[in-house]
Amino acid sequence: MAMLKKVVFLLIAANFAKSSFIDNVVEEIRKSQVEKKNTTEGVHWALIVAGSNGWYNYRHQADACHAYQILHNHGIPDERIVVMMYDDIANSEDNPTPGIVINHPKGKDVYHGVPKDYTGDDVTPKNFLKILQGEDMGMIGSGKVIKSGPNDHVFVNFVDHGAPGIVAFPDGELTAKSLNTAIKKMHKDKKFGKMVLYFEACESGSMFKNLLPKSISAYATTASNEKESSYACYYDQKRGTYLGDVYSVKWMEDSDKENLDVETLYKQFQIVKRETNTSHVMQYGDLKLNKDTVEEYQGKAEAKPITYPSVPLDAVPAPDVPMAILTHRLQAATTVEEKKEIVAEMEAILEMQEKIKATMKGIVGRATTDAKQARRILESQYDLEDHDCYEPVVQRFSMRCYRLSKYEHALRHLYALVNMCEEKISFGDIMKAIDDECY
Predict the structure, then answer these.
(1) Which of 76, 145, 258, 314 could form a disulfide with 71 if both were Cys (CB 3.0 to 4.6 A apart)?
(2) Tell me: the pLDDT tens digits for 252-274?
(3) pTM
């Protein structure tokens, strides 16, 4: 800086230029020094994803919008926050408060200012992996990607439905193997110094268990272990849907009120684990990173603390949300016609659930050698290890039987495909059983 002052003094003394020119020179030098410092120390990058659509899935986009507000309030600039969400909630005809999305019954709007980087049909697993790895998006969406370097900290927050080894998108699924392959490649290519991932989905632990290495400076926490559901919460009578998910609102409401320069990732994990008493919050990867402060991933700027009034969680397992919403609507219905309509919707859901269950039972029956093995397959929950068998089998089931992004209840029966792969039933036999049952 002393050298900078000397240069400016000489310019003035020599009457070399006007003051505006000198001001520009000073600003350019200052910016270059800041950029050099950032390159050395690293900066924050964030990728926030809501992988669903539809009014009954309101909570996922509400979670994602709230996450953006936290990172924004703590100083991460929009050019380093990428948001993927379908964006069909805020201005939906079902929204009694157009343009406003809330994540707590007494909370304020979290939709304002949220970047619309990738919306609608651009919210796909393929685009997610490209954005995360900093690949050129061409003319898709905003084109913004995670251009992180070897000293940067990357924060990834994903919210949606899940099943063993996959999380869902509006069209297609992100597999555990492809996610972890991308993370390992990013580490090899020096595209981050440290990475933290917060995942909200049923069976979300299966996205990282025995897959995320402990040696690549990547740390993940999940809403549930590898075999259980995550939970929705905050049913809102006015909107007729759930506003949030338990794990997500717990970490975000904690970040809203805590001093992030003091609180560690482990302390936040402990708080969220204790308060999320509906499922088992888990942690994976490099656990040494949980000694880092939260600000190292969610932003270092000081923000005014936000606290929320205590209200009942009214938590329900995520797979039960459609029926729970209809139950609330039925209780609030005032006319016979309205009640009949709601009951008809409930019956249609139950009928489809039974149909999906019967289809999977048929697949298992075709692929197994006897009734005893079939029963074991349908009644057990094995650990997913054989991803090379499981992932293409899931893809075939989604393609031939029930599109997983449309028939979310089908996600609840994928454990049977896990079990067949883990019992080493012939890959070809499983594929043929799927084709024959869903011809």
Answers:
(1) 76
(2) 999 999 999 999 999 999 999 99
(3) 0.90
